[in-house]
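Can't paste images in this forum, so I'm doing it all in text. The chain is below; anyone willing to post the predicted C-alpha cells underneath?
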Amino acid sequence: MLRLVARSLIFVLLTLATQIGGLAYLAALGLARLLRVRHQALRLGLFLLCYGAASISAMLAVPSLGRVPLPCFAGNQQALAAQSPLYCVLNRNYVTPELREAAQALAEHVDTEFPGTTTLALDGGFPFLDGFPLLPHLSHGNGLALDVAYYYEDAESRFRNGVTRSPIGYFAFEQPAASDVHPCLAQQNGLSLRWDFDALQPLFPNYRLERQRTGAALRWLATAGVTRFGVRSVFIEPHLKQSLGVNSSHIRFQGCRAARHDDHLHIQLGRSGGV
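Text version of the structure:
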C-alpha cells in the first residue's frame, strides 16, 4: 500500500512538473516489470530512457498540434535561448508558432540595437493540451504566454550577456524605492502568488537592471510586437514601467494576486493572434 502511495505521488509530481514525465514513469515501471529489473540504478536508467524518448516524440509531434519548442541554446544566427537547459528538459519551452516568431523577432531587434545580446526565455508552456496548468503560473496553459528574463549589468555597469541574477531567472526582484508606486501594500492578506522571498534576495549577485536593453525590448513589444505579432499585454511592475519611461496601454500591471513581475517580463499574445 505504501509503495502504491509513493508511486502515485511520484506520478503526480512528474506530471505537474513536466506534463509527460508521469507517463514516462509508468512506462518505465512496466518495462522494469517485463524485463525483471530490480536494481534501482537500472530502473532509474529505464525511466530516463523513457522520458528522453517521450520528450523527443513530443518535440516531433507538437508542430501538427499548434505548438513549437523555443530554442534551448543561442548560436551565431540565434539571439534567443532558454535561460537554462532545464526549461527544455522539463518540456516548459513550448509556445504557439506565432509567439515563437514574436520572441525571435524581439531577440533579433535587441541584438540589432545592441550587438551581441542574447534574449533569455523562461517558462513558456507544455507541449500538449490547452488548459493544462504550468505551475505556479496562472496563464501559461495555452501556448500564448512566455516569460522573458530581464537584461542585467554588474556593479561596474558592464552588460552581462546571457546572465540573470537568479539561477533560474525568477525571484530576484528589482525592489521599488520608498518614493515609487507600491500598488499592493494595502492588499497583502489572503490567497496570492505575490511572493516576496525576502530571505533569498541577499543571496543573489549584485547585478542591476540593464535599462537600455530592457527599455528597448519594452518599446518594441508595445509597438511592432502589437502591430506585427498580436502582443496583447506585457506584465511589469508599475515602478519599472515608470522608471523605464514606457507608456503604452499594452504594458500593464498584473494585479496583486499574481506573481511579481520585477524579476521578468510576461508576454501574452491575443488568442486569435490579433491585438
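The chain has two domains: 2-64, 67-269. Helices lie at 2-18, 21-35, 40-61, 85-89, 97-113, 211-222, 224-229, 238-244.
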